[in-house]
């Protein structure tokens, strides 16, 4: 699993449904309630634009709580959410009549308390309490400056400590439980992956045993019977041994066309060496198909000597090499990462008569 997906899987938002459509609906209701309270309690307000800004800050804070990934909330967003309380209260209280004409005009206190409550659930309990203390301080300063006394400011705001205290207790309960749930989920995932790997290994072993049984059993039974082997049967044994060796040393080259061409080439007396260092494990199927077709064609066209096919290690500029050696010379073919072949020839003369002619001409 990638780091991004792992962090998403461990995000407490998913555990308590903060990423669900219901959570988005709750944010919409929260925004609608704030707007409604601000509109119905506008009596005596000296200016409405600060209230509009305060509404925007509250709504953005609520949206950030359900949209910003990470657990806990990243520090930058947490700092902005912490400042929500004093900013909103400062904007709204600054334009309210003194004394307030309706308790509904103190709606910012409930709005920011909801934000702080969910900050605690998302792992920023300390900053949530810091924001609440800053909000209470803002209210006390406003009440003092407006002649209502600091006690009034403390009384009107301190009541919101109770919901934050309950959310803090909830956070201290749900977050350790969330860690246990995530640990159990990881353990279950690892166990499932291990079981899948074991099952794949067993299935591959059974498949190889069935394949070996189909290929080798007839010859082994014939040998076990004590009957002498004729030349044709000895050739069949050699070809089978070479094929089994290829399946171990070059599994990527165990393709029906390549297997048939290699068997036919060996039956003609050609030495065939197939090697696989893993460079084709992740190539696209069309590239692999193009390469295997070229290998099968080279094996089918060889009439003497030796053919060596090697798939190079990963992350090489060349995907594989094919070397055909005969009395006429060496033909080396390189296959690029697109599967196309580039031929390199090194021709050498073996005709002694021609060598003698050249020697005579030189003399």
Q: Can you summarize the main beta sheet?
A: 5 strands, mixed
| Strand element count | 5
Mean pLDDT comes to: 81
Q: Termini distance?
A: 75 Å
Q: In one word, what is the shape?
A: elongated
The radius of gyration over CA amounts to 40 Å
| Strand arrangement in the largest pleated sheet | 1-2-3-4-5
Counting DSSP H or I runs of 4 or more residues, the number of helices is 14
Along the chain, the helix and strand elements come as HHHHHHHHHHHHEHEEEEH
Unreliable stretches: 1-9, 348-363
Q: What structural class results from the helix and strand content?
A: alpha+beta
As a percent range, the share of strand residues is: 5-15%
Helix content: 55-70%
Count of discrete structural domains: 2
Labels describing this entry:
single chain; 363 residues; alpha+beta; Heat Shock Protein 90; 2 domains; 65% helix; elongated; disordered N terminus; disordered C terminus
């Amino acid at each position: 699993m990638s780091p991004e997906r792992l962090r998403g899987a461990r995000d407490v938002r998913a555990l308590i449904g903060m990423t669900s459509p219901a959570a988005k609906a709750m944010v919409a209701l929260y925004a609608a309630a704030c707007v409604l309270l601000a509109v119905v309690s506008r009596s005596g307000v000296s200016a409405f634009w600060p209230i509009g800004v305060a509404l925007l800050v509250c709504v953005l804070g609520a949206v950030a709580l359900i949209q910003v990934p990470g657990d806990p909330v990243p520090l930058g967003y947490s700092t902005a959410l912490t400042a929500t309380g004093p900013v909103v209260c400062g904007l709204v209280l600054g334009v309210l009549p003194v004394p307030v004409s309706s308790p509904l005009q103190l709606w910012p206190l409930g709005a920011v308390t909801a934000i702080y409550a969910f900050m605690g659930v998302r792992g920023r309990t300390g900053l949530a309490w810091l924001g609440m203390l800053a909000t209470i301080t803002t209210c006390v300063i406003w009440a003092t400056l407006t002649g209502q006394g600091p006690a009034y400011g403390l009384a009107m705001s301190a009541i919101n400590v109770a919901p934050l205290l309950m959310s803090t207790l909830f956070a201290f309960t749900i977050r350790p439980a969330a860690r246990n749930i995530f640990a159990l989920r990881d353990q279950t995932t690892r166990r499932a992956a291990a079981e899948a790997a074991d099952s794949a290994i067993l299935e591959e072993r059974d498949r190889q045993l069935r394949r070996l049984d189909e290929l080798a059993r007839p010859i082994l039974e014939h040998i076990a019977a004590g009957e002498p082997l004729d030349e044709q049967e000895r050739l069949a044994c050699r070809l089978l041994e070479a094929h089994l060796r290829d399946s171990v040393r070059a599994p990527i080259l165990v393709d029906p066309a390549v297997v048939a061409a290699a068997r036919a080439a060996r039956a003609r007396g050609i030495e065939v060496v197939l090697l696989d260092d893993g460079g084709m494990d992740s190539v696209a199927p069309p590239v692999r198909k193009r390469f295997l077709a070229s290998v099968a064609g080279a094996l089918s066209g060889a009439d003497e000597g030796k053919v060596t096919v090697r798939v190079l290690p990963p992350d090489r500029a060349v995907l594989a090499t094919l070397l055909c050696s005969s009395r006429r010379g060496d033909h080396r073919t390189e296959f690029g990462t697109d599967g196309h072949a580039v031929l390199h020839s090194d021709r050498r003369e073996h005709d002694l008569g021609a060598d003698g002619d050249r020697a005579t001409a030189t003399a």
